[in-house]
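Pasting two entries for a bug report.
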Amino acid sequence: MPFQYWTVTPLLMLFLNSGRAFAMSDARIVQGPNKNLGEALTFLREYDTGASNICLKVSSAQWNYATNMTDVNKRKMIEQQMLKAKFEKISWKKAALFDWPKISDPLLKRQLKLLITRGRASLPDEKFNEIHHLISEMKDMYLHVRICAFNNYDTNYCDLVLDPDVHRIMEHSRNSDELLHIWREWHDKTGPPMKNKFMRYIQIANQASRMTGFVDAGEQMRYIYEERDFEHEIATTWRAIEPLYKELFTYVRRRLYIKYGPDVVRPDGPIPAHILGNIWAQEWSKISDIVIPYSTEKQLDVTDELLRQGFTPLRMFQMAEEFYTSLGLKPLSPEFWRNSLFEKPKNRKVQCTASAWDFCNKIDYRLKQCTEVTMNDLITIHHEMAHIQYYLQYSEQPYLYRDGANPGFHEGLANAMVLSVYNPVHLHRVGLFNNNTDTYELNMNFLMIMALRKVAYAPFALLVDQWRYNVFKNGVRTMNFNWWELRLLYQGIVPPIARNEGHLDAVAKRHIPADLPYMKYYVALLLEFQIFDALCGAMGHTAQLHTCDIYRSREAGRILTDIMQAGESKHWKDVLRMLRTKTNGLSAEPLLKYFQPLLSWLKVQNRDEAFIGWNAKVEDTALFQPLFSKISGCARNVFNTFPCVVIAIHLVVNYL
């Protein structure tokens, strides 16, 4: 009989009931005595002008540093960021003077609410500066982590960085010892040095949220979704996705078991985090060579065809623009073509991560990418250009409304565009993929790659902020234990070596020390398929969803225009209704519809498996159980001595 993983139950029940547990009233949020509509209008007009100007200056300084990484440009960027923080604090104090729930104009009321409930401007100046300094320090520490190569015994030459070194090794190495070494090095050199700073950050973040009227910082993070039942809605979607995830997990585990053997992978257990092709085990597409269904079938990679046809980075950007104008969306301005960075300069250091930029002056929009002529970069260009289109469409909104309808909308819409571009049908239509797109083998391979990127990512995207909510709510005592508890619960992932509370493995993911919310990526994943399904339905597509291509569909373009122009001026569920579907809220049904052919295939492949999912045994949980939990667990389990013996041995080896 498998060991019962009793420790996850309280967290799971908290999550499933969180719609009730975390619901809050606007009445608790800071409010002032001023109900004057005219004064509110004047303040917001002044704020709109000031915020737009500050945004232009900060974006310009950030762009200058990102495209020319000198100490001078970095100093100028930091100066502008400090001025922005000062402006935000002053603006918050002014906004907090209004009795915003009683402002009669709904648009003004909404703007005041957005301004008051976001950020940490409620803090005293000393604490406000301290938390910004802490975040900056943690980001800088993360950026400067260097680790030792496998079998490198000279620690004076430990110079591997996350990108590209760590990523490249995790993606391409099939030596489990090397993968374990890199995994341990990265996690050991990120978490422990940052732990004290992170704990202080938690303390101040909670103080800021309480001063604004929230119970803790986790509640403030959730409040941005403006939905009392948001957590319940999220839990419902995950319960729908989970069976598909477990089928995919079971198939992948078997292929990894065949590859690495029982010393690395247990045939019915969780998967160790180091062998999934990603330092965080958040998506698994880089192990496609191990798990692809039909390895002899031609893969969907049009890089060679791009090179054969003489594509340049500029031509790739022009191709992406034509995709959007074919939908009836806006052409790009001369400023875009003049100011964007399309290729890596040879004479200066730049940040090469692809990104779309809005300079907040309704004129200047740019894209930064060190483009190479590859299929991956072509897809990335289409993705980033979707953000540019979003900026263009909501440009006439007030500053506070120039954003996605909720934190996941920008990314969800951009990814929905990629679903149309990155599929065999579209690539065939634009003359880049000349093979037959109807073969069963090609479609199963394609859906497997997409599932490794999307379905495998879903539980990770969900649990990161679940962990953060728990830390804000319950404190920092067992942070590492709670991190791995959730990873085992949702992902079926365990650390490859023993971890304890001296570690802080969550901060190995940059979004956590950088104070960047993560739930938006789970929301974006759902929205991606909801938007794509709606657009395909609008153009009359009736075949399997993964074969849909909205290219040249003006019907799809009209819906896109409507939802993008709204920006954040409306509740995101009102924007979802513009998709003209029956769904009123987040739904996993379109995602399941997209992957239905693969799910049927997986069930056939897994028909002889004894267990779909994973059995969590004592040796799995003992990898990260804190000392007091191990002892108390044994005390309650006096009639089953074997697990206690295993725990005792584990304690002697790893803790004493």
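Entry 2 (this is the one that rendered wrong in the viewer):
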Amino acid sequence: MVDEEALLAQFTARFDQDAEHAVTAQTDETASDETQSDAEATFDTDRFLQGLDAIFARHTAASEAAPYLEQAMIDAENAGDEAGLLTVLNETMGFYRSQGWHEKNQWIVQRAIELALRMGLEGTEIWATTLINCATAMRAAQHYDQAEDLYTQALQCAENVYPPKDRRIAALHNNLSMLYQETGRPEAAERELRETMRVLREASDDPSTDIDLASSCTNLALTLLDEGKTDDARDYADKALAIHTAARAQGVDSAHYAAALAGAAQVRFAQRQYGEAAGYYREALNLIEDRYGKDTDYWRTTEENLRKALDAAKTAGQSIDEPTHRTADNPMPNGMELARDFWKQAGKPMLLERYPRYAGRIAAGLVGYGSECFGFDDAYSRDHDFGPRFCLWLTDEDYAAIGESLQRDYERIAAAWRAEHTAPGAPHSPTTPRAQGATRRDGVFRIGDFFEGITGYRKAPAQDAPHEWLMLSESTLATATNGRVFADALGAFSSTRQGFTFMPEDVRLSLISRRLGMIAQAGQYNLPRMLKRGDGPAAMASIHEFAQATVSLVFLINNPASVGYAPYYKWRFAALRRLSARMVTRLADVCGQLEEVLELASAACFADADSVTHAGSTGPADSVDSAQVSPADRVHAIIEHICAEIVGELRREGLTESDETFLEWQRPYVEEHIVSDAPCLHSL
């Protein structure tokens, strides 16, 4: 059967391995047809699978698959056909996952595991397949600990029952890499992907034309991009294209080629080579249109990415399809590139020469305050606190031994680097008081001191301390978890940093509930009342609160462990635009609608009641007359459209069963999923 979610994941080059009709073996305990009477119920597994395939083939899965699967479970159970029932449960897991029915899927997962154990399948290929499907369902539900445990069990089983060069082992490593990527562990994701590629190379008759290996190269390129390793990411993105080119020369035309093109475009976009990115996106779009048509999420996502690349290329004055280089008008790399160059060419050699015993214990990178840590710096950022810099993070023991001397050496190489790499006549970027002394942004730090300076905590609060998590603002957590780590062999810094990345699920749900309340209060309730009262300043304040709560909600819905936290107000919309440009982002089109609300805010709050505007293209096309409407009416229509989209997403996530679009009434449904009874997590 066609797994639509797997197709989407494959297109974005982050594909799952799912068993497709894999659990079909009969056990010795299954009665043969000859021992059953004509009156006894029977279950035909092949017929079940054919019927399911037919539902997907006629594109009616949304309405027909669920009742078909539920009836099949009943039929298999009535027939006493445990093997058939296990097949149905495995297929049901995949379908429920594709629909976002994660809560319903928990019961299916538990039942499948219990049934497989009762059938004595532990240690068999069918056991491995069932574990893979269960793990993937748990990962989709964001139950990451359970998913990791199930994947690990599946891998152990697979390595015992599959041949060493079996591609299913490679697929399992790929699945683990996806889990690590989603939980903010790019280094672990990179490790699993490299193992995936090792297995595929050994399994392949010709690695130079192996499409699975090409997909893994694209996956690794995107993972390296998340780690800030843009040069390495480009190398692997180009390797994927080379494999596809060689395969196409031999007549192998794979749908994954579009994913490879989109991956290459994404890397080039990150490198600010927008013209090249647009060329690759355009080619990917043409392939998708030929293969799937325009009425697909694949086409719409890529078309939007192409538009953004074209806009960026136009703004940057870059021609399409042409490689771009730094020019005399823009000779300086961005702050993160500058930091990485400074580290590689001066910092790392200094550590190896002066502190060889400690070099492997010191973490280096750029994290914390400053636009370059978020990747938002530009020419305007260079007027203060800008220049080559990085941080060195030490354990308390190592800092006591070498901290002060290492700081002096850092200051020495920083001065020398600036003198050597600053062009004559280039404007000086002064250091402001807020970036000096105890609040300095670079140099040598104790790990605990560094995080305490940002959050007030030397390490993240305990997972069972929700009141402490709620005292940490999202912008504070964003500052503590942004940037890039260039080196951390010891892992002490990354471990502490990841502690702040994993907000407890109950806290995330509580914050979602709070944001729903503020969106309803400010945007749906108070804004119309303030407008009726003619209180423009209060109406403007309501729009501000609505926008801030909505931006926060988008990040929370997408899970900060995967996409990061919403930063402080200055960079919130830049971060939201970047998040919305990512493939498979939930509520991706909310950004454009919010921007239109803010564009109309002044006219809506302070203009005459008779003023009119034209309905824009980013908002709800069907909710207002496409002719002229008042700015206030347009703002109201967009807000209601955003709220309806939020409800739709809550339903897809299994967080509500209600269609009510006044978001205050959605809060109890969300809070039903909070496990802890801590009062601070629940609304009054």
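Dev reply: Rendering is fixed now. As a check, the viewer should reflect this: Residues 1-39, 321-332, 423-427, 614-626 have pLDDT under 50 and may be disordered.
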